[in-house]
Hints:
Helix content is about 35%, strand content about 20%. It contains 16 helices and 23 strands. The strands form six sheets. Strands 1, 2, 6, 7, 8, 9 and 16 form a seven-stranded mixed sheet that branches. The chain has a five-stranded mixed sheet with strand order 17-15-10-22-23. A hairpin with a 6-residue loop joins strand 22 and strand 23. Helix 1 runs parallel beside helix 4 (about 130-145), helix 2 crosses helix 3 and helix 14 runs antiparallel to helix 15. The model has no long low-confidence stretch (mean pLDDT about 95). The structure holds flavin-adenine dinucleotide. Flavin-adenine dinucleotide (FAD) binds next to helix 1, strand 2, helix 4, strand 7 and helix 5. Flavin-adenine dinucleotide binds near residues 15, 16, 45 and 194.
Amino acid sequence: MEVISHDIVIVGAGIAGLRAAIAAAEYDPKLSIGVISKVYPTRSHSVCAQGGTAAVLREGDSLELHAWDTVKGSDFLADQDVVELFVNRIPIEIVKLDHWGCPWSRDEDGKISQRPFGGHSFPRACFAADYTGLHEMHTLYGRSLLYDNINFYYEWFVTSLIVDDGIAKGVTAIEIKTGKMSVFKAKSIIMATGGYMRIYNFTTYSHSATGDGVAIAYRAGTPLKDMEMVQFHPTGLVPSGILITEGARGEGGYLINANGERFMRHYAPKYMETAPRDVVSRAEYTEILEGRGFKGPFGPYIALDLRHLGEGKINERLPLIRDVCIKLAGIDPVDELIPIRPAAHYSMGGIHANIKTETPIPRLYAAGECSCLSLHGANRLGTNSTAECLVFGAIAGVEAAKHAQSSSLPDIPQNPLLMEEKRVYDCILKHEGSERIPEIRNEMRYIMDDCAWIFRHGDKLLEGLKKIRNLKERFRNARVEDRGRVFNTGFIAALELDFMLDLAEVTLLSALNRKESRGAHSRIDYPNRDDENWLVHTLAYHTVDGPRLEYIPVTITKWTPQVRAY
Ligand SMILES: Cc1cc2nc3c(=O)[nH]c(=O)nc-3n(C[C@H](O)[C@H](O)[C@H](O)COP(=O)(O)OP(=O)(O)OC[C@H]3O[C@@H](n4cnc5c(N)ncnc54)[C@H](O)[C@@H]3O)c2cc1C
């Protein structure tokens, strides 16, 4: 197997991975950095971010207020030291992006515009129309090309992490073009592989969001934290699930039921449509369950009304949304209602890492959506994620660089490489089975939608867990139709499904065990938050018998839990 060496290897080239690469390259121009991405960098899911990136930039707002909004939004499960560091650092990142050329939308006086977003008590979302992620990504990617010490590996698929003597030493990766496996060895490795919401069917996420890095780290021994905490976004376009940004409500859009009523007044009288996502999604779902949804060919839905904003404002602030509605739903929001309902959106959980992005495995760091530090606790506020990728991507880059400066390249043992080749080529690509990959994948997604959705119940979670375990068995008897190695997307999809089944299992088991309702995790059979027993993070460890759960305390610095009302 060919061996490729870099001081630092970064897996993922979304906002977190690119920001990490730039930070490491700037920290020490002598370090060689390899960035591996299964898609071309500017096709990472980060380009889909629409609404904005939160930061305190104006008088009237304060770091303390941003931190409090985040802690309250998290239903007190966020680690407060992480939140405090985050709110302090993000304004600096916004200015950096500005200097690197990010075309932020601006007010008449030239200042960066900011709009309201769910759960934020001050308009602090910086944005570039509703193409925020696209512009941030182009800015970061353009910037990263300036550094001679950043090397990109486009369309390479990482399959495993090599851990030897308890230390992370490298990764195995397949060049998708040839199907050939190589090993990358490094002094520091950063996982920045994004989220895994493609374990659900009705989701706002790209097909690439399969959580590979989360599953890879888990299998290599890193625990996964708070995987029960799945965010449902209130406005997924019906029927595709494509996101209609919360910025549409931030700009003044209404949610209405089939009676024409702005029902949010019953659920969040003060914040109305800009309450946090868990609150709004539950409200919409309750309206639907109680029969007040609109009826349509794709099931009941709620309507998002932007008509009163007028064509001028929609074109200026929400051009992407208008385009998406016209092209994908055949309706123009200037004079028609947008059909929406909650969609699986974001994973608050992920690879367990500390405030410096270090994981429990030495030399392995995690940043961005694949990680759980935990900044978002049980419910993330909109615009805090791209912000997290910038802040903690930069921190991961610097930490990994510091470590790389003082260590030497590891020796990679042969045994794990041989085992990985056998797993990937013999047990998956060449396996003679009767089950089909797309069928298992579809079933997994319908099970997750059915059993681990907005309102959860122990019986359904257990049913889902049994069904996913059954699918894992069936996967062992699956067959990849195309046996070739050259750009074999069916083969890559099989590897991704294998990872997703692990993540679905951990999500269900973590949810089944958390016997309370907190943030996005809403149990019909345990409807109240229970700080006495459950003010803790879940940790799921990989074992041959399935996930083993442990719990660790939440870090509280200054905000004690209180009733969460909006
Ligand atoms: C539609 C949509 C809109 C959003 N809007 C906002 C918003 O307005 N504001 C906000 O704050 N957040 C928003 N979010 C959330 C936010 O965009 C994401 O959480 C964030 O961009 C994730 O960035 P990331 O760098 O962690 O990962 P990603 O951007 O998902 O990138 C993952 C990277 O990992 C690579 N990768 C994955 N697996 C492998 C593998 N096996 N081998 C090699 N490479 C691999 C991929 O190629 C990719 O480069 C939105 C999300 C969606 C889906």
